[in-house]
UniProtKB/TrEMBL annotation:
It comes from Archangium violaceum Cb vi76. Residues 382-433 are annotated as: Disordered. GO terms for biological process: regulation of DNA-templated transcription. This is Fis family transcriptional regulator. Residues 396-424 have a biased composition (Basic and acidic residues). It holds the Pfam family FHA. PANTHER family: C4-DICARBOXYLATE TRANSPORT TRANSCRIPTIONAL REGULATORY PROTEIN DCTD, TRANSCRIPTIONAL REGULATORY PROTEIN. Transmembrane segments: none annotated. Residues 48-97 form the FHA domain. It comes from the Bacteria.
Amino acid sequence: MEQDGSTLKPSGILNGKNAAVERVPGLMRLFAAGTAMAVALPLKNGELELGRGSPALGEAQDPRMSRRHARIHFDGRRFWVTDLGSQNGTFVDGEPVPANTPREVQRVIRMGDSLFVPGADVHPLEQRGVVTREGFIRGPALQGLLDEVSRAARLGFPLHIHGESGTGKEGVARAFHENGPRGTGPFVAVNCAAIPQSIAERLLFGAKRGAYSGADADAPGYLQTADGGTIFLDEVVELDLAVQAKLLRALETKEVLSLGAAKPKQVDIHICSASNRDLRALVAAGRLREDLYFRIGRPEVTLPPLRQRPEEIALLLHREVRQVAPQLTLHLSFVEACLMRPWPGNIRELLVEARSAIQAALMQESPRVEARHLSPSAGTAFGAAASVPAPPSPPPEHREPPKEAPSRAKPLDTDERTRIEEALRQSGGNVAATARALGMHRTQLRRLLERHALSAPADNEQE
């Protein structure tokens, strides 16, 4: 169960920073008989047999599982599930599996009232579990990243956080602030993308009385407000180049010159920045000053997207239901549907759609939140696939997606290209698996790969 400040599973003792740790393939048990969890089930010699009474399941037994329910096998690249003639069946990625017929699994396995997600390495989850601290649910990947962030903060370094929209960059920035030497000072978060360019300089650096029409009093800027603490510049690359130059000078001299001021004011600030874009590419494109990049761009941490942190999803959903409508319960189908979608908007999108589903359940006077309460488009890809819900399995061969006009295709957005390339990498170049992860038909994905010179190993295009 989820507990504030403690792991869901004993963390054990890590074997030292430089110790080599062998990758341990296995399953992550994320839901069982109505309870959200995050438990690692390592495979021994590449196999694991599960059923009611299995020692691997511990005390959280599932009465709807058969005594010999299913066998999981890992061949070094892929996970296979074989139902052993169970009474209630085994489902792989939302589809029933015939008894004694191995089926490859990409996303999620359902046995009885339990949900399992395969993982090429469950050792981090086995060692660190999932914790809830200061309102944030942190899986092993996020815990490791926050360890790096804390070290950078204690050493007084600046920090740049790279990550997709909605992954929780501000939460990481707050952890950076709290673990640094100015942790007791103010934390000022600035969304640079939301600042109109015409007033960006005034908001960042402040203005003296009379500096412009209507300035009837001194107005401190964000940098002065953060004096003695940390300023977090989210999407700093959205600032105009002239403002970037003034920001660089302020950071190097630790002095801020307000509009209309004759003398600069000393400030003592720790800086943290963030972006969902590649800073080096923006420098090359002339969108970010090279000297500012060298001032704020290192060290850098990359916040993994939610689709790489499935161990957090059931717990996030449980917490949301508990906070919004504690009289409701989570149904297996709802958690399964959420585990099967890629969530391009990450945690932000997951929580918004979860609240919408909770509201739908309340409106329908349902005692629990089910898959039918989740919007068909929730957690699926945008753009060309916006009208195609994420399927639980590949669509039938005869159902072709709408044809696109290659001659009028717009250049692929950098973020979308990165997302597709990452999905290809995660699936080992398997086009069908990548298409399912992105919530689109594999034919659409192949067209995108051809049109935008994205590549995947041809011999891995297995269904």
